[in-house]
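Weekly modeling sync, notes
Attendees: S.R. (lead), two postdocs, one rotation student

Agenda item 3: backlog of single-chain predictions. S.R. asked that every request posted to the team notebook include the full sequence so nobody has to chase files. The rotation student volunteered to paste the first one in as an example of the format we agreed on. Action items at the bottom.

Example entry:
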Amino acid sequence: MKKYRNYKDHLIEKLKDAEYASAYLNACLEESFETKNMGIFQLAVRDVVEAHGGMGKISSKMDVSRESFYRSLSQTGKARFATLVNAI
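Predicted structure, as returned to the notebook:
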């Protein structure tokens, strides 16, 4: 039986490449504007943050608390566009 890779693990590994991450974010941002659903871009930012060290590492670079950054990127969070852009 063929062993399959977990999609999320594969995505996170691919997002470690800056060019791939940039293309992924651009595609998700475009989709977000077309569908008027910023949740798509919010999820993409979460994925890229995870690939590049996680909430703690990125929030410290942004000079915001990990807790507030995590809340803003959570599924129920309402992150401002500026917060999302500053994360990347």
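Discussion: group reviewed the output briefly. The CA atoms of residues 25 and 44 lie 6 Å apart.
Action items: rotation student to repeat for the remaining queue; S.R. to check formatting next week.
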